[in-house]
Amino acid sequence: MSIGFGIFLIALGAILSFAVSDALPGINLEMIGYILMAAGLVTALVSVIMTNRNRTVVARRTTTYDDGTDPSVGPDPHVGSHQRRRRRVGIRTPLRAPP
Question: Disordered: where is this region (predicted)?
Fold first, then answer.
C-alpha cells in the first residue's frame, strides 16, 4: 500500500509542479509539487526496501521414518526400536526372490 501512496504523491507533485499555473498569495505551488515528488520517491523506495528485507528463504530438511515418527521430537515410547526403519529417498533396494 505504501508503494501506491508513494506513486500517488509523485503524481500529485508532478501535477502541482508542471500542470497548475494558478498562483496563491504566499504559496509557491511549484515548490510544493517538488517536495511532494521527493516525499513520494522516498516513500516508494523505503517501502520496496522494507518489503524485500522481510522476504527470507529458509531451507528445512526433515527425516521421516516408515512409522511416521519425527526424530527431532524424540523417541516414541509406544514404538519399539525394531519398528523404526529409516526411509532413504532415491536409493532403491534390490528385490528378493520369493522363497
Answer: 62-99
Question: Grid cell 519399539 — which residue?
Answer: 80
> Which grid cell is 51?
518489503
Residuewise pLDDT in 10s, the chain (99 residues): 689 999 999 999 999 999 988 888 889 999 999 999 999 999 999 998 888 876 666 666 666 666 665 555 555 555 555 444 555 555 555 555 555
Beta bridge partners, 86, equal 65
C-alpha torsion sign, points 70, 75, 77, 78: positive
Please give the Cα distance from 53 to 23 (Å, whole number): 43
Return phi, psi of residue 86, to 5°. Answer: -80, 135
Cell numbers describing residue 7: 506513486
List phi, psi (to 5°) of 25: -65, 125
